[in-house]
Specification:
- This protein is an all-beta fold.
- The chain has one domain.
- The protein has no helices and 5 strands.
- Strands 3-2-5 form a 3-stranded antiparallel β-sheet, with no helix packed on it. It has a two-stranded antiparallel sheet with strand order 1-4.
- β2 and β3 form a beta hairpin.
Length: 46
Amino acid sequence: MGQAVNNQVGAAAFFYGQNGQVLDVALPENRPFTYDWTPVWSIRNC
């Protein structure tokens, strides 16, 4: 578990698993959220 903040303007952050599947999407908002990073292999900003 840990925290993250998506401070981007107008861009979502996509969290991907080991096989490239989308696990979650973090929409831009200026406040931290708690997230379980265990299954996350990569993050892309779109």
